[in-house]
Amino acid sequence: MTNKTEKIKSSTEFVKYVSDFKAKNETLGNNSELLFRGQGVDKPLLPKIARLNLRINKDKIAKTEKLILKEFKRGILPLSEFRPENNWDLLALAQHHGLPTRLLDWTFNALAAMWFAVQSEPKKDDDGKLMNGVVWVLAANVDDFRTNTDKTDPLSNKITKIFRSTVVSRRISAQSGVFTVHKINDKGKMYQFETVSNFKDKLTKLIIPHENFANIRSELNILGVNNFTIFPDLDGFCRHLTWRFAKKTDE
Questions:
Q1: 156-163 LR contacts (CB < 8 Å, sep 24+)
Q2: What's the per-residue H, E or C state across 54-97?
């Protein structure tokens, strides 16, 4: 597991870190874009399907995923403007709307990831202590991306890779969204992404102290990153207006 960890206390500090980190990677010959994932709490990097308390075929993630997607595909036509052309599109659309899949959300937009880490008030652990947020930085290379989606099926994915989907919604476009598509092993389980051999040494975890959430949230808004720019629809607009006129408890 990676031991690369840094602490970030402001958006300015974050931008400088990312800029320096990118420059360092380029000097080493890696010109691929960095990927980011923001989390309000430091929890394992596992897709939602692996974190469910499964009622069907306990621990048989792949079979459960297929059953869920079958029902999703059967019911989406009158509900969605986008019609998936293959299982890659289907997974991306399902993930976007909150369905448990083998995909894990990432972004090419560093500030968007920071927003996801601090958008809400800090959560408390079982002892009532406020928890820090995190932003993961992934310095992938070209070979880490899944490019042959026209010849492969994600439901039989044999290796964890990065996947750039068709833009199935405005949110994916606004968030510069990208996914990791995870392997389900022969025992029907998934490994935490931070322990996967091909990626663990390419990850850096940035700790966002809980006492800095409010200031960073305000700084990001000044920089044009808020609920409305991240979620460019009526839901995002209403969440942004609510925040503008009624601040959060940590502000």
A1: 157/102, 157/181, 157/182, 157/183, 157/184, 158/183, 159/183, 159/198, 160/191, 160/193, 160/196, 160/198, 160/199, 162/35, 162/106, 163/88, 163/92, 163/103
A2: CCCCCCCHHHHHHHHHHHHHHHCCCCCCCCCCCHHHHHHHHHHC
Number of domains in the chain: 1
pTM for the structure as a whole: 0.90
Q: Whole-angstrom Cα distance, residue 112 to residue 105?
A: 12
Decide: 155 and 87 in contact? Cβ < 8 Å: yes
Domain for residue 251, yes or no?
no
pLDDT digits (tens, 9 = 90+) for 230-247: 988 899 999 999 999 998
